[in-house]
């Protein structure tokens, strides 16, 4: 099923979400994309890219430099879209980055917006749900929420890049985490050097 859901929330690590969206879009798969108001603020702060969640095509163009037909934007408050329903089949969802607030609400089944509802759909339909938190240190509440999500079937994939793949640039560290998300989806990629394998291809921004 070549349909994926990508959501960005207000946790730090906007570069991870942007790169994930870029790579999934390049596969030709349908990518349903949404981001929260808090995510828009983080994107502006960390990537110096102004985005307005009310302007879907504008958000996609700002992040990707284009608005490919296979990227479908949804406002995060719109619950009348396909990904809010379990009958609309997808290969899964990644919340990247995932704030601890979003993670906590998903863990307790409190769907107050499309991001949380789409995540709840993945859990109830036994589809892949990947949450990418970037928080440190972790409180006991954070850890309990991550355990609860794991037990419900989600994959908690912290934005903790490894350095064995050659971490001499920020872009490579970003690609390391994105590659692990793609691996969970079963999407072939060569974004990182895998342990014991030859060096991976260069990131476009390294040329």
Count, helices: 7
Number of domains: 1
The CATH superfamily is: Flavin prenyltransferase-like
Note the main sheet: 6 strands, parallel
Strand arrangement across the biggest beta sheet: 3-2-1-4-5-6
Which band does the percent of strand residues land in?
Answer: 5-15%
The parts where pLDDT drops under 50 for at least 5 residues are: none
Structural class: alpha/beta
How much is the radius of gyration in Å? 16 Å
Shape summary: globular
Give the N-terminus to C-terminus distance in angstroms.
Answer: 34 Å
CATH class, named Alpha Beta
- Mean pLDDT over the full residue set: 93
CATH topology: Rossmann fold
List the keywords:
207 residues, Rossmann fold, 6-stranded parallel sheet
Would you write up a description of this structure?
- The protein has 207 residues and is of the alpha/beta class.
- It has a single domain (3-163), classed as Rossmann fold (3-Layer(aba) Sandwich), CATH 3.40.50.1950.
- The protein is built from seven helices and six strands; from the N terminus they run E-H-E-H-H-E-E-H-H-E-H-E-H.
- The protein has helices spanning 14-26, 37-46, 56-64, 100-107, 114-124, 140-152, 170-185; strands spanning 3-8, 30-35, 71-73, 93-98, 129-133, 155-156.
- It has a six-stranded parallel beta sheet, with helices on both faces.
- Helix 4 crosses helix 6 (140-152).
- The protein starts with a strand and ends in a 22-residue tail after the last helix.
- 41% of the residues are buried.
- The model has no long low-confidence stretch (mean pLDDT 93).
């Amino acid at each position: 099923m070549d349909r994926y859901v990508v959501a960005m929330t207000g946790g730090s690590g906007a570069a991870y979400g942007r790169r994930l969206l870029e790579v999934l879009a390049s596969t030709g798969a349908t990518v349903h994309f949404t981001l929260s108001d808090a995510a828009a603020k983080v994107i502006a702060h960390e990537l110096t890219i102004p985005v307005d969640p009310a302007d879907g095509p504008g958000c996609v163009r700002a992040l990707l430099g284009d608005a490919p037909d296979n990227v479908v934007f949804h406002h995060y408050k719109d619950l009348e879209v396909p990904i809010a329903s379990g009958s609309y089949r997808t290969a899964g969802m990644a919340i990247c980055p995932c704030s601890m607030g979003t993670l906590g609400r998903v863990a307790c089944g409190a769907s107050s917006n499309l991001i949380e509802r789409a995540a709840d759909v993945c859990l109830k339909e036994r589809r892949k749900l990947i949450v990418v938190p970037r928080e440190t240190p972790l409180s006991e509440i954070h850890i309990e929420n991550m355990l609860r999500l794991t037990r419900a079937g989600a994959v908690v994939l912290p934005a903790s890049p490894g350095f064995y793949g050659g971490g001499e640039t920020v872009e490579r560290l970003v690609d390391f985490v994105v590659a692990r998300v793609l691996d969970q989806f079963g999407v072939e990629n060569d974004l990182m050097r895998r342990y014991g394998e030859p060096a991976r291809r260069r990131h476009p921004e390294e040329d």
